[in-house]
Amino acid sequence: MRICKVCNITKSLAEFGKDKGCKLGHRHQCKTCRALKDAVYSKKRVLTHDHVKRKYNSTYMRKYGITLDAVNELKANQQSKCLICHNDYKLYVDHCHTTGEVRGLLCNNCNTGLGMFGDSIDNLRGAIAYLNKGN
Predict the structure, then answer these.
(1) How far from the centroid of its chain's Cα atoms is residue 98's Cα?
(2) What domains does the chain contain, in order, with CATH numbers?
(3) If we measure between CA atoms, which residue out of 54, 83, 50, 82 comes closest to residue 67?
(4) pLDDT, tens only, 21-35
(5) Where on the phi/psi map is residue 8: left (φ > 0), alpha (ψ -120 to 50), or beta?
(6) Dist. CA 51–CA 47, nearest whole Å
(7) Cα 10 to Cα 4: distance, rounded to the nearest angstrom
(8) What DSSP state is assigned to residue 15?
(9) How far apart are CA 17 and CA 29, in angstroms?
């Protein structure tokens, strides 16, 4: 028998989830109280997700003039892969620094690389020629 720390009702150990870290090998709260806590937590997570979605919507709109839905559509069209290296790392919005136009989604390495080369095709060709000399 064990007393639930939440509802303060004495219940059999079968009413408590197992937890090797606890002295008796069972949780301090009964399965019913745990389920209620988990339900409340899940509801909070959905609210938090909506909050995050609003934040990203405003960030994407301010920086690139597009919505989170547009970013998600780009991601789906690209099969969640970087347009340059085709890896499925976390993707970032790539845009032309001159026009501000969104070009697609790239991984951090490829997006940073383009930026370091100043979005210059000539600089990238020079880098390719340099790499080819090494072979």
Answers:
(1) 29
(2) 66-133 (3.40.1800.10)
(3) 54
(4) 888 889 989 999 988
(5) left
(6) 6
(7) 6
(8) G
(9) 8
